[in-house]
């Protein structure tokens, strides 16, 4: 498949399609969480149904192999306040497909969606023990925002300023 670019919140390139999750993607989302050892039940689709976030699925040759979400509004306004900033969450790549750029692809896709929302920055939380993911985010320009002790352990929250989408004055 050739490059079709980004439009309407969907991206298709080189046999990789990123699409919005549907309400019946529950099993897909749970399977991806399970594949990386996340045992807690997903709350992303329910938040999406309430208009608080949007969940995306990345398919390779029609197989769902990654997911990610952009949270518009959460509990903590430092992370997602629906005006200035949104939170990237639930970034998951099936272990069999890791290390080939899909996590970065999903990250960039979610940053674009945040820019479209008009946000000035995105935030992301990474478990303090998850040095691999933090390395990826730091390389992508994320900086330390704050640390928080969540129910499952210490989490480092990072942020990245977004370039505004240029206004076409022509
Ligand atoms: C983090 C994650 C989404 C990255 O996806 P990916 O497709 O492997 O990422 P990419 O191929 O685009 O980039 C690879 C980079 O990820 C980072 N990385 C993340 N986890 C890693 C791990 N366990 N081991 C090594 N590198 C890791 C490294 O920086 C690596 O870059 P490098 O190869 O130059 O060292 C994926 O590892 C994953 O799903 N992990 C489990 C769930 C998770 O921790 N999600 C993040 C929550 S904050």
Structure description:
This protein has 170 residues and is of the alpha+beta class. The protein has a single domain, classed as Gcn5-related N-acetyltransferase (GNAT) (Aminopeptidase, 3-Layer(aba) Sandwich), CATH 3.40.630. The chain has helices at residues 26-35, 44-49, 102-116, 131-139, and strands at residues 6-7, 10-13, 16-20, 53-60, 63-71, 85-93, 121-127, 143-150, 153-161. Strands 1-2-3-4-5-6-7-9-8 form a nine-stranded mixed sheet, sandwiched between helices. A hairpin with a 2-residue loop joins strand 8 (143-150) and strand 9 (153-161). It binds coenzyme A (COA). Residues 36, 91-93, 98-104, 126, 130, 132-133, 135-136 line the site of coenzyme A.
Largest beta-sheet characterization? 9 strands, mixed
Hetero compounds? coenzyme A
Alpha carbon gap, first and last residue: 33 Å
Helix- and strand-based class?
alpha+beta
What is the overall pLDDT average? 92
Can you count the helices? Answer: 4
User: At the first level of CATH, what is the class?
Assistant: Alpha Beta
CATH topology: Aminopeptidase
Q: State the CATH superfamily name.
A: Gcn5-related N-acetyltransferase (GNAT)
> How many domains is the backbone divided into?
1
Based on Cα principal axes, name the global outline. Answer: globular
Question: What share of residues are in beta strands?
Answer: 35-45%
H/E order of the elements?
EEEHHEEEHEHEE
Which regions have little confidence, pLDDT < 50, spanning 5+ residues? none
Oligomer: single chain
